[in-house]
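Sequence in, structure out. Go.
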Amino acid sequence: MITSLQDTVTLNNGVKMPGFGLGVYKAEDGEVVIESVKAAINNGYRSIDTASLYKNEAGVGQGIKESDVPREKIFVTSKVWNDEQGYDSTLQAFETSLKKLDLDYLDLYLIHWPVKGLFKETWKALEKLYADGKVRAIGVSNFNIHHLQDLLADCNVKPVINQVEYHPHLTQVDLQEFCTKENIQLEAWSPLKRGALLHEPIIVEIAEKHQKSTAQVILRWDLQNGVITIPKSTKEHRIKENADIFNFTLTKSDMDNINSLNCDDRSGPDPDKF
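Output:
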């Protein structure tokens, strides 16, 4: 169980990843993302999640450099975008990301979406990057069970992570069960459903009971469900507030009530249709 901002989850290759981090999707490159990364790290965060699609890797790298914490204590994730997939182009995309971030290695590199007919080639490129020591761990994002089964059928290295849309309206129970069985860690993007869950009456009631915000209740629910989570914010007070979730515990009935809100509703695309 994650009990503090520095607590880690041990991935299936032995690498330790913080259970809570900062996402920077749609955080503008330059000052905005630099300041949010610095604010997160200087307030105790140790995991930063970006992607080539976000077009802010340079700012993320700058924020890491300008923070008070040495690089080796920070867990950095990036992802290969769909139009970069395939063996050679993935290797190239990785080098581009590394150069923009101005880092010597990545902690985690993910396939952003399962592009049909390409993701296995892409995975072979990730396996090479891993074998060459350029990345400490490799994983996937937005993979459904059948995508994972397809990949696992003939990969040499098993993904450590599957980062998917996950929140009380999309609890992904079958997918989480499958990942648990395969020792693949589930990670949540859009844990607050882009703000759409902040006024959900059941969550509001639970938040009032614990004297916490609805966002804090949802993020706590993620952790108690064993899911790594990376809420996005560019405001320092919100970055601090999001992480202030280690001084209370949701009861079993709280958890059950939040789980009952599932309606398989996505805020982002369906991986099978994307």
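Check: The chain has a mean pLDDT of 96. The chain has one domain: 8-196+227-232.
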